[in-house]
């Protein structure tokens, strides 16, 4: 029997032929979750002018501590006039600072006396002023190619007046479910049948990772039907994903069909869950479609999606943040031991003043999908390892396809202690 391959070998084989897809222009209003195909340069300073950080009064710092005439009222979006010496201006948050003023004092510190204002004495120059270009300078790189456009990035682009962006085309995915015993929800179960939990689970994960699922197909348990469906899927998609049919049973036809039609790069991994996993390529009129054959077990499919589908989709999108999961170290709240396969345990991360701990779900059996629902990380336990409570373990943060905003994760994906 062939030796089980380590995950590093599988990832190398998976990504070695993965190239970024072609690009397309989309409206900014439709660009949420898309990946930039090119750098975007800033056309405007942000803010575009010096403006007030709060409601208050604009004045010269040298005239603080005096009673000054209120010479103008400046609302956001209104024109301003130069500030005459011996006067101040009533000003509101976001309003342009009038020429001549060099500080703003909040309204709570000012005593209003008719058309005059009594200003406190301790107002430093530049106080409560947001300077032009503090955030962005025209000409600088606003966002880099490979950036996934989530809320803040979309706002950044809109602040430049951008209406369209060049993005990488979403990978088209054909999702195949094998097994005559697997049926869709809504159909009465017969003896020996199971509802298809993989299909909605993997469709959602693939979409979260940035792919477009273009085909959902049930594959019969026969060699010819399997070959036909694989061929058809390869013509429709950049990536063909199947569940089941990659083990060694008499009704497992996917691996054989893949070898007959295309190329089997790797089969059977030294990981738990998910040992029966097939990687390869399928020919099509457009070239080659990537193929990933996940185990039929839903937990194995769930873990395999994070470990393999996410980085592959990230490579096709040329999006670095998708190509590896953020790592965080934690204290094990469990004890376990491994054999020859590397174990990916579903854990919940708990944060406290003493650090981060990983609490494992009691039943780590590959048939227990409920262990994935509240899991926010996979604790990586290397082969032939004994872990005791309190030992340090490395966890892969299930970041949902985009950068996780957590105070404990820095840009280098290391763990800060609370």
From TrEMBL:
Listed Gene3D superfamilies: MoaB/Mog-like domain, MoeA, C-terminal, domain IV, Molybdopterin biosynthesis moea protein, domain 2, Molybdopterin biosynthesis moea protein, domain 3
UniProt-listed PROSITE patterns: MOCF_BIOSYNTHESIS_2 (PS01079)
A single GO molecular function term of this UniProt record: metal ion binding
Metal-binding recorded as keyword: yes
Lineage top rank: taxon: Bacteria
EC number: 2.10.1.1
InterPro entries for this protein: MoaB/Mog-like_dom_sf, MoaB/Mog_dom, MoCF_biosynth_CS, MoeA-like, MoeA_C_domain_IV, MoeA_C_domain_IV_sf, MoeA_linker/N, MoeA_linker/N_sf
Matching Pfam families: MoCF_biosynth, MoeA_C, MoeA_N
Listed cofactors: Mg(2+)
Example GO biological process: Mo-molybdopterin cofactor biosynthetic process
Pathway in which this enzyme or protein is active: Cofactor biosynthesis; molybdopterin biosynthesis
PANTHER family in alphabetical order: GEPHYRIN, MOLYBDOPTERIN BIOSYNTHESIS PROTEIN
Entry similarity comment: Belongs to the MoeA family.
Functional note: Catalyzes the insertion of molybdate into adenylated molybdopterin with the concomitant release of AMP.
Alphabetical list of NCBIfam families matching this protein: Glp_gephyrin (NF045515), molyb_syn (TIGR00177)
Record's protein name: Molybdopterin molybdenumtransferase
